[in-house]
Amino acid sequence: MPELASALTPLRSSENSRKVNMTEAAETDQVPVFRTRGLAVYYGDFRAVRDVNLDVRGQEITAFIGPSGCGKSTVLRCFDRMNDLIPSARVEGSVEYHGINLYDKAVDAVEVRRRVGMVFQKPNPFPKSIYDNLAFGPRLNGIKKKNELDEIVESSLKRAALWDEVKDRLKASAMGLSGGQQQRLCIARCIAVEPDVILMDEPCSALDPIATARIEDLMQEIKRDFTIIIVTHNMQQAARVSDRTAFFTTEVNNESDRRTGVLVEFDLTQKMFSRPSDERTEAYVTGRFG
Amino acid sequence: MSSDTNRWEIGSLRLAPARRRADTRMRLIFSAAAVATLAISILIIYTLVKDAWGFFIDVPKGDLWNIGWFPRRGIFDIKTLILGTLMVTGIAMLIAVPLGLGVAIYLSEFAAPRVRRVLKPIIEVLAGIPSVVLGYFAISFINPNIITALVGGSNKAFNVAAAGVAVGILTIPIIASVSEDALRAVPMALREASYGLGARRVSTTFRVVFPAAISGIVAALILGISRAIGETMVVAIAAGAVGGGLFSTDPFQPGQTMTAAMAALGFGSDQVAGSGLAFQSLFFIGFLLFVITLVLNMIGDRLVRKVREEY
Amino acid sequence: MSIATPDRFGAQSAASLTERLTGARRDVRGRIVEWILLSALGLSLLILVALVVNLVDRAWPVLDGRLGDFLSSGLDASNAAEAGVWQAIRGTLTLAIIVAIVAFPLGIACAIYLEEYAGQSRIARLIRINVRNLAGVPSIVYGILGLTIFVKFAGGLTGGRTVIAGGLTLATLVLPVVIITASEALRAVPQSIREGALGVGATKWEAVRSHVLPSAAPGILTGTVLALSRAAGEAAPLLLVGGITGLLRTGNQSIWQQITEGGFTSMPVAIFSYARQTGADFQAVTGAASLILLVLVIIINGLAIWLRNRFESRW
Ligand SMILES: Nc1ncnc2c1ncn2[C@@H]1O[C@H](COP(=O)(O)OP(=O)(O)OP(=O)(O)O)[C@@H](O)[C@H]1O
Ligand SMILES: [Mg+2]
Hints:
The complex is a heterotrimer of chains A (about 290), B (about 300) and C (about 325). Chain A is an alpha/beta fold. Helices cover about 35% and strands about 25% of the residues of chain A. Chain A has a 10-stranded mixed β-sheet, sandwiched between helices. In chain A, a hairpin with a 2-residue loop joins strand 4 and strand 5. Chain B has about 300 residues and is mainly alpha-helical. Helix content of chain B is about 70%, strand content about 0%. Chain B has a two-stranded antiparallel ribbon with strand order 1-2. The longest helix of chain B is centred in the N-terminal third of the chain and has 42 residues. Chains in contact: A-B, A-C, B-C. At the B-C interface, helix 1, helix 2, helix 3, helix 4 and helix 5 of B face helix 2, helix 3, helix 4, helix 5 and helix 7 of C.
């Protein structure tokens, strides 16, 4: 078991010592999937987000909400080290994954991304066949046998509720699918490598309401097997699908006129949308803000 | 899944070594290839500078400013070559600037999209004509049919004017395509604003679009000049083959450019053995040529980038 | 309110207003300018036509009488009736193969480094500027490089003034073309494709190999084809690294001899040599050789342009 000590170290003394709602601190005996302490991300000199202290639990859906530019995507991309791909990006503070420091030198970002899958805002199927889209990940991990791959493709598509729609045209190009189907294909592509976590960055913002509803249903179904973190601008969606919600906002810096994102409140979704403890959260969820 | 606590050790987040190695190896290969391009530049500069300097030290300075370019006789009159280069480039620009800009403006501002789609590739074909073919065109068509008609037969069979025209033809596509890109980079909103004020197409083109694209058009001209200066074979075939070494300001006489003189050192009449002053003069001209075109290209490149940044 | 009335602009009556509103039809100045521009375009195309017609006309004695013979005969500087281009064609093909083997992998690898790995690092910026500058270096300067490096310095490996030295020189010459076009093709691949691959746990190289390169392949292919056509048309650098120009018959070596002993030639070099011979019959030979090279290069270029247009708007 990973060291409790690190989980209990006092919060980094932050400029404004706001009390971050530590969800039921008593439960720390169960190691969360992700635990961030004093997380701050810089793009060059610009601090995009700071002081994020967050515990993401397994087999739950966690939603990130907040106004545009408050750093939701930035924080999300720390969890699968996608920020590594942006040369100017720099991460401070700690991000632990099952108690392992994600930014440890011994940790390989590629392996992290295998375990922590990502679904992007715009569906991004590879311009290849549906089958090859699904088989790509497993093949990377050394699965070569045709029947094994067939099985993975089928089960992943089934779990992504796409099998019935595409089972007759697995060899057809994935680009020919509708937007909603493409997005479910991307989810299936994620599932095919059997990740532990699935990160979703506004997965429905490019989709129509019907396709959105299907993705939401899908999330409910797969949450038994995966930990899901979803960024959304749609508060109803957050309220509908998530178990816990984190609300971010931006604060003006004293030293520069650029705004830095902060985590305002993190709690059970039910509580966040009915009786939030921070008035900024309340203003936002009731639509009086941004 | 996470009930299997053994999985969550740091080692489990390490990539299979074989895949990591393959990734590192490819990265090394790619960086090596990229660094190799730097090596090319360094080698070019090194070889040029080394022998050019040797030549400059050894040559009696009086021979650099004499009656003509006759390397085997030890006469290295640089001004003959520079004059030849200037004349060829000047004549080339007389042809290429109006035609190249005309093509660019027409394609970008006047032609219907369908016309443009057909004509643009044809102009690009012009860019692909090998320069030896244009050199032959210069002696077999431009000189007998155009230059002779122009000056009534006082031209020599090989002369600077014919070579200049052919080099100009070679330069048209460069000027046309770079300036067309610049014109098309001007935002539609600017044209609409002009039309909205009641301007006609011609005034919109020349008063609004053209000035807005001016740095790109200057870039096109500079890159065209650089291309013309660097052209070798057309001049070697059409202007400098016989008696081009004599200093002459008459464009209807033979002449020698820096490039053609270098080619001549490598073959036939001026071919020189692997050492000696004449051979080293190759590097000296090469160095001058390299510096001139480098400066022109850098300025042109800077201007092209400026256009991209502006819009 | 003068702003609302057209009077300020001189339209007094309905008739003159009509005239003004329909004036575009009689915009004489505009018409003239358009015609001037169109004639610039027309003249450029006319030059192309004149070039081809002139070549066919000059080459006709050869094309009509002995085309097959011309294609299969060797170089000959003394007897135009027996002169041909087959060694030149063979030489150009050999050079093209060497260029393809050397410049394509190197150029594509460099482009991959610049687009996929380097980002905006200082070294990457330096390499980019360097490549753009190399693209503008006159071809004859590459001849000097080839002479110094491939013929003399590495003469032990290349055999001196051999087809290998020539091929390496041309490969260096077209390398920037390959890099620039391949970079453009890679840049056109949407970022989402890379993220998709990395997001399921591919390494950078796996993402590049499986998705980025296949997506960029048509564009890269276009660039390599253009580079080949450039190499096929170049003569100047070859003159400095040993392309045979003087006594043409010495260019009759077998490929093996060309590789080990030198004495190679290529289409542009042969054209240059023939163009230096005097007499109408050699004019015909030069014309025929030029026409063959032109057709070859236009076909290659046409292929490249077609490839590019075909795959241009995939994203
Ligand atoms: N690659 C980058 N380089 C520089 N700054 C960036 C980069 N990506 C994001 N930022 C900045 O970081 C801040 C947070 O961006 P982020 O994308 O995380 O916000 P977000 O909450 O996801 O917004 P949205 O809801 O609009 O997606 C913004 O001010 C943004 O401009
Ligand atoms: Mg975002």
